[in-house]
Amino acid sequence: MPTASTQRSNHRSSRWRRRVKTAYQEIDLPFGKLPTRAELELTTKEPKPRGRWATYLLAEWDRNGQLPATYPYPIQAWRLGNDLTWILLGGEVVVDYSLRLKAELGPKKTWVSSYSNDVMAYIPSRRVLGEGGYEGG
Question: Can you list the pairs that 31-39 forms with residues at least 24 positions away whose Cβ atoms lie under 8 Å?
Fold first, then answer.
């Protein structure tokens, strides 16, 4: 038999679930320049981890006849009532994404997190790609 405390807890939980909205989507994020088969074969001679990764990619190439041109990039959003929108992005995103999302959704009502749902690589913005260097090169 439920107690008064349990009933209050269930009521609060139900109200909270009605106020939380979530969404999840994977978009096809295109890779930059893909290595050639000859480049991969040469890289297999390098020490770990690059040599092993090249061996893995060659096996993928043999299985599918090519390397994939895109990556299924995860994006998730949680809206907590009218007070907060939490955007969760995969990989290590640069600050430009947080600045843009906060400008579009409101800086006091938006949190942006990376390393969410998958960690595959740096995710540079167009600005960072144009600068080159470690994050954009």
Answer: 31/67, 31/68, 31/69, 31/70, 31/71, 34/67, 34/69, 35/67, 37/61
Helices (H), 30-112: 37-43, 50-64, 95-105
Q: Where are the beta strands (DSSP E) in the chain?
A: 20-30, 70-80, 84-89, 92-93, 110-113, 122-123
Tens-place pLDDT, residues 60-77: 999 999 999 999 999 999
Both structure tokens of 91: 């990989």
Question: What single letter denotes the amino acid at residue 4?
Answer: A
The answer to pTM > 0.85 is no
Four-residue CA torsion sign, 121, 122, 124, 128: negative
pLDDT tier at 14, thresholds 50, 70, 90 = low
